[in-house]
Amino acid sequence: MQVAAFVFARGGSKGLPGKNLRLVGGVPLVARAIHCALDCPEINVVYLSTDDPEIADIGIRSGATVPELRPAELATDESPEWLAWQHAVTWAEKPELPELECFVSVPPTAPLRRPSDLSAAIALYRTGGCDAVLTGTPSQRHPQFNLYTMNDEGMARPYDDRRSAPVRRQDVSLAFDLTTVAYVLAPQAVRAGAPLSGLKSRLLVIPRERAVDIDDELDLHIANCLLNWEGRDSDATV
């Protein structure tokens, strides 16, 4: 059996143009994701799914396998991520290849992840009893204290009025913000196309400094600053 990693990096991005080619530590985001996956000992092959020839070229030079360019209809702002996952997983499920043990998505937008984070996610998946492993960080602002909305008159109220008001922070259950560090799924879950929220999932907790998600210029600046932070561990991928 084999573990296949998939890096999904389309060419278009409205929020941060050319996002997957932007640099962190002088290395394009897409290349950093590929390098990290290649440095994970549990991963046997790394595939790159992209609609962009330039990204594909960088991916191949970085060590990824690019069987074909992603069809244009699977690379728009409106295209569900699941469809790209289903399209790509067929590359690792050809009859001549070893059986696929699990599907590992390694998004380029989390450039500070470690190979050890991927190893830990795969190990957690292998404990069994789940369809997926998600990654998250402890929420800095618990939704029961901080999530509010406004009505038409501009009056603030709790986002979910059905919940009972907590008295102390210690009394509420733990909450986590999902990250894009990694997604590990059973191949059959990918093929089924069920939403992540409907899967039986385990959660791997990731330190905040390794979970920066790139959405805008500020995130890029933060990632570059953290990359040189003396407190980081020793197994970072350059």
Q: How much is the radius of gyration in Å?
A: 19 Å
CATH top level of the largest domain is Alpha Beta
CATH topology of the largest domain: Spore Coat Polysaccharide Biosynthesis Protein SpsA, Chain A
Would you identify the regions where 5 or more consecutive residues have pLDDT less than 50?
none
CATH-level-2 architecture of the largest domain: Alpha-Beta Complex
User: Given the C-alpha coordinates, what overall shape results?
Assistant: globular
Proportion in helices: 25-40%
**Major sheet size, sense and barrel closure:** 7 strands, mixed
Alpha-beta classification: alpha/beta
Tally of individual domains: 2
Percent of residues in beta strands? 15-25%
Give the ordered list of helices and strands.
EEEHEHHEHEHEEEEHEH
How far apart the termini lie comes to 29 Å
